[in-house]
Design goal:
By secondary structure, the chain is an alpha+beta fold. The protein contains 3 helices and 5 strands. Helix content is 27%, strand content 30%. Strand 4 and strand 5 form a beta hairpin.
Length: 135
Amino acid sequence: MIYVTRREVFSASHRIYNPNLSDEENFKIYGKCSNPNGHGHNYTIEVTVIGEINKDTGYLIDLSQLKNIIRENVINKLDHKNLNLDVEFLKDKIPTAENILIGIWGQLVDKIPNGKLYSIKLYETENNYVEYRGE
């Protein structure tokens, strides 16, 4: 098996809070991330595909094709958006890195034409990231 990874970046804002809780309870759980005016991140995602190399092309998947799939199905939907308000696949979800990542997985899992989606990493900061490998 070979693993091919493509990295992309996007910027987005969000407020992490549970609407069923008071502002005080949200602050206790989420700290400054529950600021009513929200905050933003410059996110990085790494999308990894696993599979066998095609003997005719020498590729598992053409990286230009993977780039276009990620941009069309993820970056264009998230970049410079408010994740609480503007992103349909995050509707009614608390936009934690974990929930954002599971939402991204859902946008990509059936779009990979060669190989199989193996994992996605979402870096919220330089020091913090989450990884998901499907259900």
